[in-house]
Amino acid sequence: MTEPVNYDQIFDSAIQRLHTEGRYRVFIDILRNKGQYPNARCFAGHNGPKPITVWCSNDYLAMGQHPKVIEAMEQALHDVGAGSGGTRNIGGNTHYHIQLEEELADLHGKQGALLFTSGYVSNDATLSTLAKILPGCVIFSDELNHASMIAGIRNSGAEKKVWRHNDVEHLEELLAATDPSLPKLIAFESVYSMDGDIAPIHAICDLAEKYNALTYIDEVHAVGMYGPRGGGISDRDKAAHRIDIIEGTLGKAFGVMGGYIAADTRIIDVIRSYAPGFIFTTSLSPVLVAGVLASVRHLKSSSVERDGQQAAAATLKRLFAQAGLPVMPSTTHIVPLMVGDPVKAKKISDILLAEYGVYVQPINFPTVPRGTERLRFTPGPAHSEAMMADLTAALVEIWDRLALKLAA
Prior knowledge:
Blueprint: H1 7-21, E1 30-32, E2 39-42, E3 50-54, H2 67-80, H3 95-108, E4 112-116, H4 119-133, E5 138-142, H5 147-156, E6 159-163, H6 168-176, E7 184-189, E8 191-192, E9 197-198, H7 201-210, E10 214-218, H8 233-236, E11 245-249, E12 259-263, H9 265-274, H10 276-279, H11 286-301, H12 304-322, E13 335-338, H13 342-356, E14 358-359, E15 362-363, E16 374-377, H14 385-401
Parallel strand pairs: 3-14, 5-6, 5-7, 7-10, 10-11
Antiparallel strand pairs: 1-2, 2-3, 4-12, 8-9, 11-12, 13-16, 15-16
């Protein structure tokens, strides 16, 4: 007689594998203090809330705390209520949604934009739909593309060719070897958030034009952060007009929630009309949309937050390097500190939180390859140099305690 499937054992084994490999993830219990970012309160393992400093938020510019954003959300709440009421097709469209799409299209110099509930959904829904619409489409994907892009490409069912990270010579080899009669789409990111490096956008666009390929850029870690109006690296490098589809998030530098694409009206209409991830999802609450609208408008005209963040990142990199800490090379606002071991990365994170009131999450596989586990710091305009000095001193002490190697 066949033994019945032991579901509990299967689930327990799956979780145990994560513990054995040292990459079981723990979510800490915190609340941010409104208007006092990066200060927060941690509830886990304490008799009441313990003050901590947040060093790993993707709210890079603290716009989630900005008075204009909070005021806009409060006004929308009292004006229209909490929820959207449904999908955009059935009752979930509001004037706030239309206004925000107009602002985002303008931000990127495109004819139109389309809102999604998250950056993950915007990547997955757009890439999967686009490739299905284009018969025989071949997608060329940078090997370090985000999981949401990989999911979208996989869900499209299209042929995928992976090119070595930021290697345009390899990309051209793959393009040249592909049937020129087939539709082609080059998908890449502007800022790669785990290493902090930047794509050679113009060189990629040169190849797209040479081989008649569409271009799709993920700017989630760059929108709001770069360019004179916060349009991202493609804005900074004056390349936005060369890119067919620009994808971004509303939950990082803009400080709230959501995702979007910006493109010409033809592409926007196709995705709006065919993408299940858009059609069948309840739209963003107008309260959230109102907050993003205020954030986008503010960052189009203010560079104070961007300048402060860049200065903070440069200072933290300098302090880490001077202390001999293994800070990874980065030309962006991301400050990764290499550990190379999941158990040690988690141990460092635990000590920082318990003993120093510093919150930074370890980054393990599958977010980064095995053997490259790290701590990823995202200093913002509100992180003072004194905070950075204290953080550096804490890390040096922990490195010594755990017998980890410092640079000479």
